[in-house]
């Protein structure tokens, strides 16, 4: 069961659903009523409902031991949920949709990519550490290196950029103009793979 009375209106129109990596929480976005409902699957009958402006649910890549859901809004914010029933923090600063989120393996750093052509590094308190600028189009995918020393950003502009945790650009790679849609570090983080 999602939200509302099926058939009464479009509130049962499930727009997206994401399960946390520990299979404990299920987040569902329903209908035009802009409802985000988070279900605790270990406690049947327990859910939290929050009204956000047109939310999109984004799973956080990486940091698999830190089960977190993120609900992005068109105002450039992301609401993080790792405890039930309320959200932990709100990431504010982007000027457009947040399109991707990744968490470092130690869980203390986050990176967000946005349609505003930037990425942002965050600490675990939701404070911006650095704004990563330079892409010519939306940042669509992200990845932290296994040691947490670097981050990758991939963009619709066809570039992959490597950043330090201080926000300095370390390298740029061109993917021949093809929009970059997936990134992953290989092995110990000396190489990476990208998908277009």
Question: What is this entry, summarized?
Answer:
The chain has 196 residues and is mainly beta. The chain has strands spanning 14-19, 25-30, 35-40, 47-51, 56-59, 69-72, 78-81, 89-91, 98-103, 109-114, 119-123, 128-132, 139-144, 150-155, 159-164, 169-174, 182-186, 191-195.
Tags for this model:
mainly beta; globular; disordered N terminus; 196 residues; four-stranded antiparallel β-sheet; 0% helix
Main β-sheet description? 4 strands, antiparallel
**Number of helices, counting only DSSP H or I runs of 4 residues or more:** 0
Give the end-to-end Cα distance, rounded to a whole number of Å: 36 Å
The chain-level mean pLDDT equals 82
Structural class: mainly beta
Oligomer: single chain
Structure description:
By secondary structure, the chain is mostly beta strands. It is 0% helix and 48% strand. It is built from no helices and 18 strands. The chain has strands at residues 14-19, 25-30, 35-40, 47-51, 56-59, 69-72, 78-81, 89-91, 98-103, 109-114, 119-123, 128-132, 139-144, 150-155, 159-164, 169-174, 182-186, 191-195. A four-stranded antiparallel sheet has the order 1-2-3-4, with no helix packed on it. A hairpin with a 4-residue loop joins β11 and β12 (128-132). The protein is globular and about 50 Å long. Residues 1-11 have low confidence and may be disordered.
Task: Set down the secondary structure blueprint.
Blueprint: E1 14-19, E2 25-30, E3 35-40, E4 47-51, E5 56-59, E6 69-72, E7 78-81, E8 89-91, E9 98-103, E10 109-114, E11 119-123, E12 128-132, E13 139-144, E14 150-155, E15 159-164, E16 169-174, E17 182-186, E18 191-195
Antiparallel strand pairs: 1-2, 2-3, 3-4, 5-6, 6-7, 7-8, 9-10, 10-11, 11-12, 13-14, 14-15, 15-16, 17-18
């Amino acid at each position: 069961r999602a939200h509302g009375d099926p058939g009464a209106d479009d509130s049962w129109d499930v727009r997206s659903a994401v399960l946390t990596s520990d299979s404990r929480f299920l987040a569902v976005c329903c209908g035009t009523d802009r409802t985000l409902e988070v279900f605790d699957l270990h406690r049947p009958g327990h859910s939290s409902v929050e009204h956000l402006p047109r939310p999109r649910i984004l799973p956080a890549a990486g940091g698999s031991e830190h089960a977190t859901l993120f609900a992005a809004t068109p105002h450039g914010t992301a609401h993080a949920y790792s405890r039930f029933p309320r959200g932990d923090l709100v990431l504010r600063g982007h000027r457009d949709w947040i399109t991707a989120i990744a968490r470092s393996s130690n869980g203390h750093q986050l990176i967000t990519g946005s349609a505003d052509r930037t990425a942002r590094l965050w600490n675990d308190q939701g404070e911006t550490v650095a704004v990563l600028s330079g892409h010519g189009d939306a940042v669509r995918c992200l990845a932290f290196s296994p040691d947490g020393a670097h981050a990758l950003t991939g963009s619709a502009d066809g570039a992959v950029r490597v950043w330090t945790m201080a926000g300095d650009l370390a390298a740029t790679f061109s993917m021949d103009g093809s929009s970059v849609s997936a990134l992953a570090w290989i092995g110990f983080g000396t190489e990476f793979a990208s998908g277009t």
